[in-house]
Amino acid sequence: MEPGTIDNLSILYQSSDFIVVNKHWDIRIDSKMWYETLTLQSQLRHRFPELADPDTYYGFRFCHQLDFSTSGALCVALNKAAAGSAYKCFKERLVTKAYLALVRGHVSQSWMTIRYAIGKNTTEGRTHMMCIDGTEGCENPKPCQSELIVLEHGSYSGDPVTKVLLQPLTGRTHQLRVHCSAIGHPIVGDFTYSLGQDSSPYRMMLHAYYLRIPTRGELIEVCAPDPFVPAMDGNWEPQHVTRRLEDTIQELK
C-alpha cells in the first residue's frame, strides 16, 4: 500500500535481452508531462542507467502496456532485436496473460466468457473511456473476448466482492475493466468506470499476475506476487475459496 518511489522497482526476471518488472499500482509507464517525473521509465533509468537505449524516446522498449492504475508483470526489451521477437509473439497471439482482480458483488457463475464488442466512447466528458457495443456514443466497436474464473468470494471493507482471474483473449484498451463493468461486477477502486463513485479504496484492484512470452531466443514466464491477500490489505476478507490460483494457472498453461 506504499506509494511508488524512484528506487522501489521490483524485478521479476532479467536476461541480456529482457527485463520483466512488477509495475507499481500508482506509476505510469512513461509520460510527456514535464511535472510527471516518477514513471516506470524513470525508475528503469535510475536502476539500470547502463541499459538505457539512446535510440529510443523513453530509453527502454516496452513490449506491451498496463494502465496507470494496474500493477503487475510488464516486459521490457533491452534491444531492437529482442523487441521485434516479443512483438511477433504478441502479433501472432502466442502470449498468455492472466490478471487478478477484486470485483464488486458475488459473481454467481464459476467460469464465464465475456464477449461484448468494445469501442471508443464519444460522449462529451467520457472521451477518455471505452464502451460496449449498443451504448450511446460507442464508436467503431470491435469484437472482444475475456475469460473470468472465480477464485474466492469475500468482502472488502464490509462490502461483498469476488476475487477473480481474468484472461483477455483480445487486446482492446481497458478491455477487462469494461467487460467487468458490463456484467455488473466492476473492478473495486475503478474510479473511471464507476463514473467517479468508487473512490474510497487506495487503488484499483487489477493486477497483471501471469505473463508468458515464448520468444525465439528464450521463454519468458513469470508470476507477479498476488497483492490481494489479507496480509497485504486488511480490508480484503476471503470467506469461501472456489478455485486455487495455482491450479487455475496450471490449467492455463
TrEMBL record:
GO-annotated biological processes: enzyme-directed rRNA pseudouridine synthesis
Domain Pseudouridine synthase RsuA/RluA-like span(s) in chain numbering: 18-182
Pfam families in UniProt: PseudoU_synth_2
Any one GO molecular-function label of the UniProt entry: RNA binding
InterPro entries named in the record: PsdUridine_synth_cat_dom_sf (IPR020103), PsdUridine_synth_RsuA/RluA (IPR006145), RluA_PseudoU_synthase (IPR050188)
Entry-linked SUPFAM superfamilies: Pseudouridine synthase
Family: Belongs to the pseudouridine synthase RluA family.
Protein name: RUSD1 protein
Lineage start: Eukaryota, Metazoa, Chordata, Craniata, Vertebrata
Gene this protein is translated from: Rpusd1
